[in-house]
Amino acid sequence: MHFTLSSASIKTTILSVFLICFGFTSSQAQDSENTIDSLIVNAPKAIPLTAIIQNIQKTNEDLKLIERKLEANKAVHRVDSLYPTYAEYIDKQQEQTQKVLTSNPNRQKIENLYTKWNGNRIYLTGIEDDVNNYVSKNTRLLETIELHHKTWDLTLENAKNEEAPKEILTRITDLIKDIETVNEAIIEENNTALKLESKINFKVELINEIMEEILTLKTSETYDLFHLRNEPLWKTSFSKTKKSSNTSVLETASDSFKELVSFIKVNKSSFYLYFALILFLFGIVYFLKRGFEKYEFVTNDPNLLISKDVILKHPVATFIFLSLLLGNIFFTGTPKLFESFLILGLIIASSYVVRPQIKTQFKNIYYVITFFYVIDSLKTFLWFHPGVYRIYLLLEATLIGVALYLLLKKLYKMSDSKVNPLSKFLIQLSPVIYILVFIAVMSNILGYTNLTDITLKICTHIGVITVIFYSLLLILEGISTSLIHRHFSSKAVIDHSRKLALEIKLMKILRVVVLIFWFLFFLNMIEVYRPLKDYLTDVLSEPYSLGTITITIGSILSFIIILASSYLLTTLISFMIDDGDGEGILKSLRLPKGIPAAVSLVIRYFIVAFGFVFALSSLGMDLSKFNLLAGAMGIGIGFGLQTLISNFVSGLILVFERPILQGDTVEVDNLLGRVHKIGVRSSKIRTFDGAEVIVPNYNLMSNNLINWTLSDNIKRIDIFIGAAYDADPNLVLEILAKAGASHPNVLKTPPARGLFLEFGDNSLNFVLQCWVHYEVSLVTKSEVSVAVYNAFKEANIEIPFPQRDIHIKSMPNNNTLEDTKS
């Protein structure tokens, strides 16, 4: 179940990134590096007499700290003491491997040998890295000790020249001796570690040679699928004369058990860390289960209901499955017996996850899968005489065919309408299994046992990996559904359509990812993955020259993958931290409004920036060559990109100063609407008539901006009204105050009040002032105005309208005009 996907390590210097970002030239970069070097490398100087005692105390504290560091890290000594035993174990395994390789083993034993030695290599390589890190730490301590030694040598010489007291000279001399003692201890530790590293490296090289030999044998003609490796079954001898000589070199159950015990003893510290991870995993499963219990989950999608039931109804099986899967990933290079136990546990745990989705007639499929997995795995741990081994294979193939027929015979008689998708899949797959069983039987009888081994392996393991990956898919879907459900349900307002769309989309992505990994494991099972990986590695690493640039297809793919991963990671962070409403994972910290958005923006910018730098590094480009480009960009910014940069900087100011926040109602340039999004260059404002207006960030910073909801969303509405001159002003004020206070949307504090403004030309002018929430201000103003009108009508108070008296004067020649018209 183990396979390694290698990735090239990407190294970059943070200082060069900032130099490129701010457009330094190469000479400026060199000056900066020289300045930094001068700060790091402190030239030793003599300590003045007045500061000697104080510095002696500080140096003694440094020496004690260094000694504690040497005492604290005893892992190298433990490895050095255990190494002879492990080296003896390696030598013994080498001797047994050579005997196995000369005893004509089957393909499965060759694969198991390769897996075992790969585990040994991983284990020793990890120890080698630890020892190397230990030496590197000691080397840095030696540099500190050397600096102290030179400093106090100069100080002693200076103190003698200045005729310091004898007591001071004695203290300095004793301190120098202590420094030399610690220096010798570090050198001794380093020598021990270097010797151990050399021994380990020798064993690693030996293991590489053994693995290469195993791989060469495996790819030889002897193990070709269509190689006639044995005589026909009817000509096979069942003599047991060679059994005693072979059983001592082949892996037996007892040897496998001893290897398992030895593995547990060697990795005891790793098991402690594994148990800590299991406890953390238990907390996660409990957290996911509480999400469904705390918030009601309502949906009509059957797949989402299944994902909910996996977490809510089977949390123990989910926890055990994830724990065993974590163990399979956490422990690399495990013995075959340990790996088989883990896989068997995964099958049992997955039965509680998958069986509720299977109809009654298929409930026994897990017993069938488990039985044949155990039967096929016994070939790894037990010795069989060649003739008996072939009879064993023949019986195994026959049992597979019979079990499959008994399992599916009821389905063959059922109509298509009564058969669920899983049953249809099994019916469609059954002819393939029958063909494989037939090939296994015939190839075994004829002597093509390599082909027999691989076909039986497919028949017995395809169900195992399918069940395990299907269980993994259901659990991952349950985890994703629980997280999304908890994220949306904890909000004051739930966007159900977006929640459902996100749940379904993520479920589709998980299915594609799990299917890809299933396919990779299937290729590994049929022993095609390794040669295919080697072929693709050769193709992707083939260099191509474009002018002075040399690139590979692999570097281009790495560039694309890194950029895509950066984008997906920023999207995830934006969803989890901010999500546009400030109710993300930082909600429990009760941060001020807008702070989660700022945190999200900073993290996303850093991810994008470093992702771009890493992507360029994956192409093999020298980032120092971008200094000229950075200078040209500076000139371009000065001439043609002023608006772009000003908008970008304004966007940063908007995020950190927070004059407007996402969701605020703002008014700028006679534009009234709600802030939908604050972007890098511009912001989106959605007006109340449904239009989305793209406003450059610089305009928001430079123009008069009215934010109606920055500190709070309370707004005052003014309703102007006039009354006839014969109305009682006191009664009018009473009616206005009562109409405002009686409306449910009007706030009690400050209270609604009516004011007498002036004696108008045609009326007594009043105003009613009410404080309401901005979202309901327009509706409230309308309803309160109607209430005032009704109250005036009920109290017989007239609302006058403007009146004008027009006086028409007689014109002097009016009669003359009339005579002319007639």
TrEMBL record:
Would the keyword Transferase be found if you checked this record's keyword annotation? Answer: no
* Compartmental location: Cell membrane
Print the keywords alphabetically. Answer: Cell membrane, Coiled coil, Membrane, Signal, Transmembrane, Transmembrane helix
- Record's InterPro entries? LSM_dom_sf (IPR010920), MS_channel_1st (IPR049142), MS_channel_C (IPR049278), MscS-like_channel (IPR052702), MscS_beta-dom_sf (IPR023408), MscS_channel_2nd (IPR006685), MscS_channel_C_sf (IPR011066), MscS_channel_TM-2 (IPR011014)
One Pfam match, by short name?
A: MS_channel_3rd
- The answer to whether UniProt assigns keyword Disulfide bond to this entry is no
Q: Where is the Mechanosensitive ion channel MscS C-terminal domain?
A: 720-799
Domain Mechanosensitive ion channel transmembrane helices 2/3 intervals? 602-642
Membrane-related topology note: Multi-pass membrane protein
- Signal sequence span per UniProt? 1-29
Q: Where is the Mechanosensitive ion channel MscS domain?
A: 643-709
Q: Can you tell me which residues the record assigns to a coiled coil?
A: 49-76
Q: Which stretches are transmembrane?
A: 271-289, 310-331, 337-354, 366-385, 391-408, 429-448, 454-476, 509-529, 549-573, 594-616, 628-656
Protein family per UniProt: Belongs to the MscS (TC 1.A.23) family.
The protein in question is named Mechanosensitive ion channel
Q: Give the species this sequence originates from.
A: Aestuariibaculum lutulentum
Higher taxonomy: Bacteria, Pseudomonadati, Bacteroidota, Flavobacteriia, Flavobacteriales
